[in-house]
């Protein structure tokens, strides 16, 4: 009897499962496309004159070309009432290092001004090396921290999807500079792998995933975090080898000299009377000079040896802790302090942290810094309404709604929440055009080379700033007290799958 009862129970359970599955399938079928629905859609569609014209145009050329607003192009002028003299455009090539280039572009004017240089370029590959190495260590530590976490958890999926990405934030840049310093381009040149990171990243990611599997096996067999960290040390040695092969080994110290400004160049900045007075004085002093005296014509400074941190302190000496991340986050209330977890590249570094404020407040801070000749790092969504031929960022640059005759509009909050927009590129503000006592345009220094934009620069119209700029990095001296006080509040912790990441 017990045996028969058991069989009956199993039969009933199977029947219940089948009924449930059938119910789910029935509900799913209610939402399926039917021939009747398709027939109605086709019957309702009318190929009117507009649709036919658009079909002819779009099937023959790009949609962007058809949707481009010619009025914006006609009215466009690349002129600004105030600009910082930056001298030179950098190129991140085929890498995701925009945040690093933007950070260095905000520092570069300091050395250009102090040494009166005609040009200067940082070694981006130097910081790239240490960024990759630090990210590997942080990845291992996250694997150790989540050693008991299910492999299908969102955190583990996030880590394993891209163990050592190119991307980063101002906070990562600041942490790297504070720990490793900076060096000029001559001290460590770019490589094929630094310019085009695809294969290096693919191989490095595979190695890190293999190491993650080994670390979890060690935990499973020993339950010892100490054993896991002991293995991590050997793994980091392998990562270092991969990075040296791809990028070269970063120098512990280097020798540098720079081109000094010639006397003739300096004379160009003086009046005719000043030059005549100096010439007369030099003529009077000729008898006192040795014929071998060549100080005036010296073209290069004396060679000097630096460590990367000494170089930074000598020519920049900016306290990066004095800069804060001010963000326009339309998802959260103004006045909120937020922190996005798992965004630090250094394990002993900082996660991305910001104060959420109104966009007009952000503009005021940026304008004040620019008018004091200080460039400003910012992040934005560069996917919509910008074109790289003329270097234009304007909110109405493309009109896709007129192409399709459909309402496709979303506001800034909707675009974020619906994953239609994301801050995906870092650049630097280097100027602005003030009309009627307020900014009408903003001058942007990009890192896509001189061939794109207006010699590497972009004109950002004020309406584009409203819609697509998310974060700016501002020195505390330009931030109102009530905004700085936001950072004193406990941070709302956000995940790395937050829309703003």
Structural notes for this entry:
- Strand 8 (386-387) and strand 9 (392-393) form a beta hairpin.
- The chain has a single domain (82-255, 312-494), classed as Alpha-Beta Complex (Cathepsin B, Chain A).
- It is an alpha+beta fold.
- It starts with a helix and ends in a 7-residue tail after the last strand.
- The radius of gyration is 29 Å and the shape is globular.
- It has 20 helices and 14 strands.
Count of discrete structural domains:
1
Structural class: alpha+beta
Q: Say what the CATH topology is.
A: Cathepsin B, Chain A
Gross CATH architecture:
Alpha-Beta Complex
The H-level CATH homologous superfamily, spelled out, is Cysteine proteinases
- For the record, give the distance between the C-alpha atoms at the N and C termini, rounded to a whole number: 62 Å
Give the C-level CATH assignment.
Alpha Beta
State the helical fraction. Answer: 40-55%
Low-confidence stretches: 265-270, 282-287, 291-296
Task: Please specify the SSE layout and strand pairing.
Elements (H helix, E strand, L loop, with lengths): L1 H29 L4 H10 L4 H10 L4 H5 L2 H6 L6 E2 L14 H18 L8 H22 L8 H8 L8 H11 L11 H4 L2 H25 L2 H23 L6 E3 L6 H5 L4 H14 L18 E3 L1 H8 L7 E5 L9 E4 L11 E5 L2 H13 L4 E5 L5 E2 L4 E2 L6 H5 L7 H6 L7 E11 L2 E8 L11 E5 H7 E7 L5 H4 L7 E3 L7
Parallel strand pairs: 4-6, 5-14, 9-12
Antiparallel strand pairs: 1-10, 2-3, 4-13, 5-6, 7-10, 7-13, 8-9, 10-11, 11-12
